[in-house]
Amino acid sequence: MPVAIPRPTAHAMRHALAGLGVLTLLSCGLLAPACAQWKWISPSGVVQYSDQPPPSTIAARNILARPTAAAQAAPGPTASSASQAAGQLKGQDSQAARELQSKLEEDKRAKEAAQRLQQQVSEQARLANCLQARRQLQALDSGLRVRQVDAQGNRDFLDDAQIAAQRQQAAAMIAANCR
User: Fold this and answer.
1) Which of 64, 70, 137, 145 is 20 to 30 A distant from 93 in Cα terms?
2) How far apart are CA 83 and CA 90, in angstroms?
3) 170: number of Cβ within 10 Å
4) Least confident of 30-39, 89-98, 159-168
5) Rounded CA gap, 48 and 137, in Å?
6) At 7, is the secondary structure helix, strand, or coil?
7) In 10 A of CB 54, how many CB atoms?
């Protein structure tokens, strides 16, 4: 059965375009601080972003972010500035390597904990199966008549051959689960 899809009205189109305009302005405004290298708190308490350093009147404790040494380096780096930048990069690399190693160790510990939990669950299931099989074997060996309910809900007494088969199944379950 075909479904009719209504066409948007001019009014709805204007609202959609206005919404896109607002989103565009917001995204431009939110992305502007991403390019800034300096971040500080002004005397009025407003966080400022800029690619230029803050005024000299801003206290050092109010400067929240500074450009990295690589960004401050002149276009033609000298040997000393290049070695400083290399040292900083090496320090950043070692910090990143330590963080990566820490995360890998944390993941390894989490996997080991999950394996231990899975082993505990398996052990509990094995013990429950053992207990159930022992109880079933005990009921079969009691000498009492054993009834079984079929798929239709009818209760039938087990004959000797069925009891022997049930006893073998219970013994196999005990051998597999009771250690």
Assistant:
1) 64
2) 10
3) 20
4) 30-39
5) 79
6) coil
7) 19
pTM, 2 dp: 0.41
Quick one: tokens of 148? 């079984």
Q: Which helix (H) or strand (E) holds 124?
A: helix 79-141
160 phi/psi in degrees, rounded to 5? -65, -35
State the residue for tokens 């689960």.
Answer: 177
Are the beta carbons of 39 and 64 closer than 8 angstroms?
A: yes
Residue 1, SS3? coil
Say which amino acid occupies 174. I
pLDDT for residue 158: 85
**On the CB side of 126, how many CA atoms lie within 13 Å of its CA?**
11
DSSP for 15-47?
A: HHHHHHHHHHHHHHHHHHHHH-SEEEE-TTS-E
Angle, alpha carbons 2-5-8 (nearest 5°): 170
* Token pair listed for 27: 């995204």
- The pair of three-digit structure tokens given for residue 159, joined into one six-digit string: 């004959």
Specify the pLDDT at position 105.
93
Alpha-helical segments (H) within 142-159: none
